[in-house]
Amino acid sequence: MGDPLRRPTDRRRHAAITERNLILGGFGLALLVGGLLIWRFWGVGAAALGMVCMGGILSLFALLWLVLKLMEIAGRSR
């Protein structure tokens, strides 16, 4: 028999969660460090504009993710 405390692993789910966390962490780090550097060298107005630009980029990635997710759902239903 096997070890009763050992749980089965789902490697695909683990990989998907890890990938998502790395992407979110990268964007968060870019937002924080980039925003702080812009604020330090060019001031609050430039930092606010940088945050607006980063928000636009994040919204484009979110839209792309949504389109791909809808395509995945549509492909599964056939």
Structure at a glance:
The chain is mainly α.
Q: What sort of overall outline do the alpha carbons produce when their principal axes are compared?
A: flat
Which oligomeric form is depicted? single chain
> Gyration radius, to the nearest Å?
20 Å
Largest sheet: none
Total strands: the figure is 0
Number of helices: 2
Low-confidence runs of at least 5 consecutive residues: none
Helix and strand composition category? mainly alpha
Estimate what percentage of residues fall within beta strands.
under 5%
Question: What is the share of helical residues?
Answer: over 70%
Order of helices and strands: HH
Name some characteristics of this structure:
78 residues, mainly alpha
Description of the molecule:
This protein has 78 residues and is an all-alpha fold. It is built from two helices and no strands. α1 runs antiparallel to α2 (44-76). The protein has helices at 11-42, 44-76. The model has no long low-confidence stretch (mean pLDDT 88).
What's the SSE blueprint?
Elements: H1 11-42, H2 44-76
Helix pairs in contact: 1-2
